Amino acid sequence: MRNERERRELKRTPFTATIWEERSDGMRPAKAVDICALGMRYERQATKVAKDREVLLEFCLPDDNRPLKVLGCVAGESVRGSVHSTSVTFAMLAPADAKRLQRFMSRDA
Q1: Residue 1's pLDDT is what?
Q2: Selection from 86, 67, 65 nearest residue 77 by Cα
Q3: What is the pLDDT of residues 45-83, one digit of tens each?
């Protein structure tokens, strides 16, 4: 049985990596915080919030130099002080990339 305070169905794994977020106003670096098979949370320096509901993300998994490129649908955003936090749900993850992500996630199980 899942903890009543935990609303997510899938376990999120701590994940620290530099990622690149692309929105209509440009590309910027961000820092991944956690990841699961269906999404990711990341933080970046707070700037004016773009109204885009989709972002293109590029990042590498540990011990893997081939970048994953994935479209993400913004599930939530918040700004606290100088930190902008974004949660995304992955959309259109290539099958080969989904397998790579599953392998990474299963290492921590």
Answers
A1: 40
A2: 86
A3: 987 766 889 999 999 998 888 999 999 999 999 989 999
